[in-house]
Amino acid sequence: MIPRHMAKPGSPFLRGGNLRDSLGTTLNGLLQQLPPEELQRIKRAVRDAGLARGVVYEDDAGNPQPTPILLRPRVLGGNQRNYLHHACRVMEGAWLKLHRLWQDDSEVRRLLPMSPREVRWLAELGAHAGPDGVEKRAEVLFGRWDATSDFGSKDWLKSTQFFEYNPIGAGGTYLAPTVDSIVLDHVVPALRRNAPTLLLESNDDPRRVMLEVFADHARSLRLRRFHVALCQYKGLAGGVEEFPANVEYFRAQGVACWHVDPRELRVKDGELLYTEKGADHPIDVVYRDHEIADLAQQEEAGVDMSGIKHALATGRCVSSLAGEFDHKSAFEVFTDGRFAGHFTSEERRTFKAHVPWTRTVADGRTSDPKGAPIDFLPWLIAQREALLLKPNRSYGGSGILIGRECSERAWQLAVERGAKDPGTWVAQAYRPVAEKDFPVIDEEGNVGLAEYFNVLGLYASEQRLGVLGRASRRRVVNVAQKGGLVSVLRLL
Q1: Among 359, 332, 335, 477, which Cα is nearest to 418's?
Q2: What are phi and psi of 413, to 5 degrees?
Q3: Are the CB atoms for 164 and 327 separated by under 8 Å?
Q4: What is the CATH number of domain 117-137+208-324?
Q5: What is the residue extent of each domain of the chain?
Q6: Which of 198, 238, 322, 338 could pair with 139 as two cysteines, CB 3.0-4.6 Å apart?
Q7: Crossing angle of helices 175-186 and 206-220, rounded to 10°
């Protein structure tokens, strides 16, 4: 923690849609002006509200602990928000092409490997034909883009980088609006006493983003009813239970919605049903938290999965089969010139600006970030400090190795491990994560500043953008690894 002198509050406003100065510095200064006893009260109120509203993680003993919520919000300018939304939509359009590419191109299948059970399910479910004999391939995605952007920098466009996509079971849909609400209730009023024109509001609630995706998809299927099931195993241990909370939210919007275990779905006379307390509820759209690898494994163990299979086969699932391609190596398809012809000029421009160069770890030749041919493994070892390694299909930030932060020996061993099992690891160009100062308050109410690495979770529909902020003292930022949450607000 680095003590700072009192900062004179600035006058935060926009110029050309971007933040005029570092608004984060201004907000830190406003917090530093508050009396120590008020800072302590705000700190306790934020912590208590997080605990009361289920913003928690489980400690090593299995007890719920409040997930840290940083007091200072990050703030988006209007044009910045619009640009991020557009970039997400362009990236999603490219992602929707992966399923077809995987079917048609053996090289894409090599880069996006699937297990035998996944291949069987994709073949079976992707070939389904409806009653009219027309093949049903209604592709739809609802997911979370993990990215970084330094809003307060003049080079914020260049700093905006996408790291990966979570197209199934995107977490944070309850956390993001809840953290925003807590900060707006307990922190922002104190900031505005010395900066009355500091008018902040939430970005779009990710659940509204989700609802728009569901409704648009239902309209595309010409459904005459709109009953929604949020499909996730019940009784899961650990962390925030977002699905039950989200069911309450959807019902408050007037949508018939249920939290459904995939083992509880069944088909009767061609209709998908969920039975609760002896009553049958017809289901029209299913949001799924499970990949087909998991569902297929359950079926092989004797569990009836006919309901969720029916939903997938008839295009009633969000995300559809396109969501199975959660591979980090999808970024290789985007950044390797061999596949450029499959993407539009706008998609290629977005890849060039915001997608790190990525390659699957395997012996052979490829092209480097400048397009020059290279013998990959020797080059990969030599370029350690410019790269990172990550498991191709893991999540939660696990297993990531940053070359500049590890020894040459550890890097070489990791490369050798990846080369022995091609398709399981990717190498990616290192891109810096936004580093920001946040106020840290000690037990006496004294405030100092500490540096945190910040990442964004972005949820996009046609009209909306939801934002989840996360922060950590470590470069690999993930709440599952006990990082903190940051409210990301929009400046009016």
Answers
A1: 359
A2: -65, -40
A3: no
A4: 3.40.50
A5: 117-137+208-324, 357-429
A6: 322
A7: 140
Report pLDDT digits (tens) over 312-331.
999 999 999 999 999 999 99
Residue 368 class from Cβ within 10 Å (0-12 exposed, 13-18 middle, 19+ buried)? middle
Rounded Cα distance, 450 and 232, in Å: 38
**Whole-angstrom distance, CA of residue 373 vs CA of residue 377:** 12
CATH of domain 357-429: 3.30.1490
Q: Tell me the C-alpha distance between 276 and 335, whole Å.
A: 48
Q: Do domains 117-137+208-324 and 357-429 have the same CATH topology?
A: no
- pLDDT of 253-297, one tens digit each? 999 999 999 999 999 999 999 999 989 999 999 999 999 999 999
Q: What's the CA gap between 229 and 260, in Å, rounded?
A: 6
What is the per-residue pLDDT for 252?
97
DSSP letter string, 291-359: -HHHHHHHHHTT---HHHHHHHHTT-EES-GGGG---TTHHHHHH-GGGGGGS-HHHHHHHHHHS--EE
C-alpha 19/C-alpha 453 separation (Å) is 20
Strand partners, 257: 228
d(CA 85, CA 240): 26
The amino acid that residue 204 corresponds to is: D
- 38 residue type, one letter: E
How big is the CA angle at 179 (ends 178 and 180), to the nearest 5 degrees? 90
Find residue 256's DSSP bridge partners: 227
> Is residue 390 within 8 Å of 347, Cβ to Cβ?
no
**Token duo for residue 328:** 């980090």
Assigned token pair, 58: 């489980």
Q: Can you tell me the distance from the alpha carbon of 248 to that of 9, in angstroms, rounded to the nearest whole number?
A: 40
pLDDT in tens, 69-117: 999 999 998 899 999 999 999 999 999 999 999 999 999 999 999 999 9
User: Distance (Å, rounded) from C-alpha 272 to C-alpha 307?
Assistant: 6
Angle at 190 between CA 189 and CA 192, to 5 degrees: 65
| Burial profile 11-47: b = 16 or more Cβ within 10 angstroms, e = fewer | ebeeeeebbeebbbbbbbbbbbbbeeeebbebbeebb
Alpha helices in 356-445 (DSSP H): 376-382, 408-420
Cα gap 286→260, rounded to integer Å: 9
Q: Give the Cα separation of 205 and 177 in Å (integer).
A: 6
Whether residue 14 contacts residue 20, with contact meaning beta carbons closer than 8 Å, is answered with yes
**Contact (CB, 8 A) for 452 and 438:** yes
